[in-house]
Amino acid sequence: AINTATVASAYLDTNPANNTASATVKIQPALKLKLSRHTGHVGQQLCISFRATSSGKKVKGAKVSFAHHSARTNHKGKARLCVTLQKKGVYHAHVSKKGYAPGSGAVHIKA
Q1: For residue 76, what are the contacts with CB-CB under 8 A and spacing of at least 6?
Q2: Is the whole-model pTM more than 0.90?
Q3: Of 27, 35, 45, 89, which sits most exposed with the smallest number of CB within 10 A?
Q4: Who's near 41: CB < 8 A, 6+ residues apart?
């Protein structure tokens, strides 16, 4: 996409040729991260399946990170992580891949 800005003034401009600027910006497609579970309990093993998509299409090779663990998505855009969390609270999962804007999701861990 090309963004263009033009300025004007009520005062005499001796060089009107410098009143416009343009910049070409590459718009990255966004990653969407779907989680199989959104809740868990302290001290219990929690296994979550993640699915990475972009514009409805599966994304292979995206890195999914959750609670200091990570995995890569397979050809179906899926990854699975099992963790045991020791503190209650909200934990965030993130997905990233070069050429895409990152995505995220949240898991609530209860006492």
Answers
A1: 51, 58, 60
A2: no
A3: 27
A4: 109, 110, 111
